[in-house]
Amino acid sequence: MVTATALEAELLELAGAVPDPELPVLTLRELGVLRAVHVQGTDTVDVDLTPTYTGCPAIEAMSLDIERVLRSHGMREVTVRTVLAPAWSTDDITPEGRRKLREFGIAPPRVRDGSDPVPLSLGPTRTIATHAAADPDPVHCPHCGSADTELLSRFSSTACKALRRCLACREPFDHFKEL
Amino acid sequence: MTATGPATAPVTAALALGDDALVLSHRLGEWAGHAPVLEEEVALANIALDLLGQARVLLSLAGDEDELAYLREERSFRNLQLVEQPGGDFAHTIARQLYFSTYQHLLYAELAAGDGPFAPLAAKAVKEVAYHRDHAEQWTLRLGDGTEESHGRMHRACEALWKFTGEMFQPVQGLDIDWTRLDERWRESVEAVLRRATLPVPEGPRTGAWSAGAGRQGLHTEPFGRMLAELQHLHRSHPGATW
């Protein structure tokens, strides 16, 4: 996007303002899945979109929404391309996106240091994860803010979330897993 | 979905990796409505969804994803026999997840580190598979080091599927991998998990005498035909049907 034209910047902003179909509090820009917009000629545009998870079914709804928005802005031909590299990471979610997730009741992903994607440690023989006290970077409850939370299931309502429970306020909540 | 990728991906390798993901995805999907607890039903469905997404990208590198999934005959599939086995009890499903996700995680990490045609997909999928592997390892520990009943079931499952694990390390044309080293690392990892889970490491042969490495050559076990009939029935009855 180094050489983006004013029109490309405008279209990128429009496409970026499309809400995520599964997490409508977030825009595609805040989710970090919109990679680039290339205008060919005057009314033909290619949009590069990257999936969060390879099998995320939301990407098809995202593509249709982007096409609709850009068509209504005068683009005649809109092609949304799925790009895999570089792979999306939860670090691509903007700080504003993280704040919105928390307000929506979803614990945002912790920022990774770029090392191993998932700590593969053999824990206790129950699904409950290491106790919060032993975790230097615990997942906080999005409702009461407590760091004392436990893992109920590694996979929740969607592949990108884990199900946890707060041991302070007892509320279950989704955690956007680090990827 | 159209994924941008080099058009030169070797078809044999794309089918091998893609069929593994597609077939295991279908087998895991069979748990919908039958898993022991709701959380586990959701977990298995999510793992299946990850695999289906990978299958779509991989099969699209080899041709038309729908034609390849729905219109090929049994002998044209190149998946491992491990992934086509029926789910069995929950312990069998977990044992298969342990064997396969460890293999897939190590293999994708290797492919992601290279610059071949599978590197972009592997770099993405390796992060997803890390969660599948963690899920399988934690359940292996919980069942193996659990009650007498769960230990017995997990033990039987690990033994029963052991004969399908040798096939995973048969070289796949088009993949530049040190398969002997990959096998060693797989054994180290799986054996460490089994020991932690108080389960004996199976000692039997790692291939069946009549079918050594046969899945990659298109020879499959009896349950696969029935699974494929179910997977393909709708599309063959109503070509091009969509939701």
Automatic annotation (TrEMBL), chain A:
SUPFAM superfamilies: Fe-S cluster assembly (FSCA) domain-like (SSF117916). Pfam families: FeS_assembly_P, Zn_ribbon_PaaD. Residues 131-177 form the PaaD zinc beta ribbon domain. Residues 16-79 form the MIP18 family-like domain. This is Phenylacetate-CoA oxygenase subunit PaaJ. It comes from Streptomyces monashensis. It comes from the Bacteria.
Automatic annotation (TrEMBL), chain B:
SUPFAM superfamilies: Ferritin-like. Transmembrane segments: none annotated. InterPro entries: Aromatic_CoA_ox/epox, Ferritin-like, Ferritin-like_SF, PaaA_PaaC, PaaC. Pfam families: PaaA_PaaC. GO terms for biological process: phenylacetate catabolic process. One of its GO terms (cellular component) is cytosol. Gene3D superfamilies: 1.20.1260.10. PANTHER family: 1,2-PHENYLACETYL-COA EPOXIDASE, SUBUNIT C, PHENYLACETIC ACID DEGRADATION PROTEIN PAA. NCBIfam families: PA_CoA_Oxy3. This is Phenylacetate-CoA oxygenase subunit PaaI.
